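Deliverable D2.4 — example input (structure tokens):
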């Protein structure tokens, strides 16, 4: 048996989120960056699909005020993870974290426990089990109106992978549990299968998320819907050409409102959203890549919505309205093997009842073996019908990574986000004193830009030590 044990103090400020421009109605997925959660992360975080995941480690260290829906940061007191192989066919992962109480928000201390089991079947397939428990400690110390005493999710998942690597996918069922039960649907289930040959790829995905399915330590940006999503792509391999491979494809997704949330706009299982993407991908002999995509979106609004998040409080697209619009997107990625590389993605077209044009991408330069310099950017110009005012949304983030020795590293980056009116400066020093064991010293500043003023400032030290038992 080979098990890893890691004990970790508070590190909520060590890894700062990369900011994004959010033009959607829902929460955006941010990938985990903290090393403590990244090791053996496939055991814990690979459950579910893009729109539903029963365990999302970034929830730990963040509490949700259930009366307002606002995320509130929690200090992490301590945590431990036990993960590894019991034999050639059986893997186990156990995780336990303890956070501090927040008296100002009426939240008690929480304990997070996760158990994940994986058993190999056939050549490459496996059966997986997960149990997630978020438990309030001494709930009498908090306000019972703004938190649940406990939230639990359990589920089974079968992941299939054929020996010839042509068929891959998964099927799953999850159930959530809370102190007060109603007649709501507290479950989610889904299926995703992909079949690949040298000249084509086809995929089928479907997902049901009940209105009552509540994974507080998971990622479930929306509920009460049934999703169907077929996808296909064909590949050409030209001879004596600058192209290595190219071909067309499409991706279609339709969301149907189940109707258990009591909305008065749509009948049960009536369409609420759809997206249709037609694209052509190119891979060149020099290792560069390109893509041209035409997207058509249909959106029905169940709540008032301001896509720019820049308007006055009384300016919004009203609930009960629907919109159908199309966008043209182009993407080009240079050869990432070279010292200088870049990605550029222009966008232009309709957006709800108006117009959108944008440009995003990044530049990277590596000066080996000393480090790298990078710059990411995202600009969107949005003009909707009156009374909306046109909005220009900027997001820019330069970053410098320096390697002094094989054990000493320094990272500094700046992020300016006009949508959030925020300027963030972050510097992190890392000393790897032995394998998978590090000391971090981090300084971070957040400023409002109108008027310019400090929002918060922190210096954080973190020590991780790896025991191989």
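Example output (designed residues):
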């Amino acid at each position: 048996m080979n098990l890893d044990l890691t004990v970790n103090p508070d590190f909520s400020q060590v890894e700062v989120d990369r900011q994004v421009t959010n033009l959607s109605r829902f929460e955006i997925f941010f990938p985990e960056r903290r090393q403590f959660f990244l090791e053996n992360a496939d055991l814990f975080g690979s459950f579910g699909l893009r729109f539903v995941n029963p365990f999302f480690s970034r929830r730990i260290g963040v509490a949700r005020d259930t009366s307002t829906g606002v995320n509130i940061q929690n200090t992490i007191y301590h945590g431990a993870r036990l993960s590894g192989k019991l034999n050639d066919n059986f893997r186990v992962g156990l995780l336990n974290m303890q956070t501090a109480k927040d008296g100002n928000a009426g939240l008690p201390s929480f304990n997070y426990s996760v158990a994940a089991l994986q058993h190999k079947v056939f050549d490459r397939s496996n059966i997986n089990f997960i149990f997630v428990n978020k438990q309030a400690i001494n709930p009498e110390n908090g306000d019972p109106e703004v938190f649940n005493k406990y939230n639990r999710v359990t589920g089974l998942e079968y992941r299939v992978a054929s020996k010839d690597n042509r068929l891959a996918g998964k099927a799953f069922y999850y159930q959530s549990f809370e102190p007060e039960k109603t007649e709501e649907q507290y479950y989610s289930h889904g299926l995703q299968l992909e079949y690949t040959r040298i000249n084509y790829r086809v995929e089928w995905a479907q997902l049901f998320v009940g209105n009552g399915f509540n994974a507080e330590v998971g990622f479930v940006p929306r509920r009460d819907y049934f999703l169907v999503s077929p996808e296909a792509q064909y590949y050409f391999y030209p001879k004596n050409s600058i192209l290595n491979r190219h071909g067309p494809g499409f991706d279609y997704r339709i969301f149907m409102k189940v109707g258990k949330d009591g909305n008065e706009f749509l009948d049960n299982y009536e369409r609420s959203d759809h997206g249709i993407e037609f694209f052509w991908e190119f891979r060149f002999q020099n290792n560069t890549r390109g893509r041209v995509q035409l997207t058509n979106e249909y959106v029905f609004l169940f709540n008032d919505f301001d896509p720019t998040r820049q308007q006055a409080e009384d300016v919004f697209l009203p609930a009960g309205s629907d919109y159908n619009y199309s966008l043209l997107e182009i993407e080009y990625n240079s050869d990432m093997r070279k010292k200088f590389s870049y990605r550029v993605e222009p966008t232009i077209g309709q957006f709800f009842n108006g117009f959108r044009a944008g440009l995003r991408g990044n530049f990277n330069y590596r000066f080996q073996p000393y480090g790298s310099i990078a710059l990411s950017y995202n600009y969107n110009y949005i003009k909707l019908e009156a009374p909306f005012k046109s909005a220009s949304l900027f997001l820019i983030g330069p970053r410098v990574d320096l390697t002094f020795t094989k054990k000493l590293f320094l990272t500094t980056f700046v992020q300016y986000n006009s949508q959030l009116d925020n300027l963030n400066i972050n510097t992190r020093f890392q000393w790897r004193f032995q394998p998978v064991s590090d000391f971090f010293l981090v300084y971070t500043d957040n400023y409002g830009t109108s008027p310019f003023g400090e929002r918060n400032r922190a210096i954080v030290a973190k020590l991780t030590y790896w025991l191989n038992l």
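The two ends are 9 Å apart (CA to CA).
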